[in-house]
User: Fold this.
Amino acid sequence: MDEAELSRAFPIGDGACLEAVIGRYGQALLRYCHHILCDYHEAQDAVQDALLRAWSRRNRFRAGTNLEAWLYKLAYHACIDLLRQRRRQLFAPPPPSGHNPDYIGPELRAALSVLTPEERGLVFGRVMEGRSYEELSQIYGPSAAALRKRYERARKKLALALSESELDEQKEVVP
Assistant:
């Protein structure tokens, strides 16, 4: 099923439609949630929760609209719910095992901690997934122009945090 067919079939959906949605969007949603939560197991929980919400609320989805954006919005809210519910350290480093393309080093992890979950999701969407501002506006709600400005602010915050961490490292080296 292509995206348009899936978007039309999802509100009516059967088990095969759900399998198609999971097959098409599951891994991308997992990467997205992992970059917001920085914990693989929590990301799995968030994706499972988002897909469960999507399936149980499929009658609310308007056929023909952007299914992917709706799923990302549900995944984002599932991540926010987990962050509120667990109220714990967000950036415990994942155990590095071999080459993991989703692994974020401790310097970047610390710098990302200054961003809000929405800002992290926005940076991830632009940098890691190459999404346009129009696509991101369907996920987050504000206009593309507003998101462009938010992204620029988040990018500057991240750059400042990274430069501060480099300065801290230099201070530790120089007596």
Observations:
- The chain has eight helices and no strands.
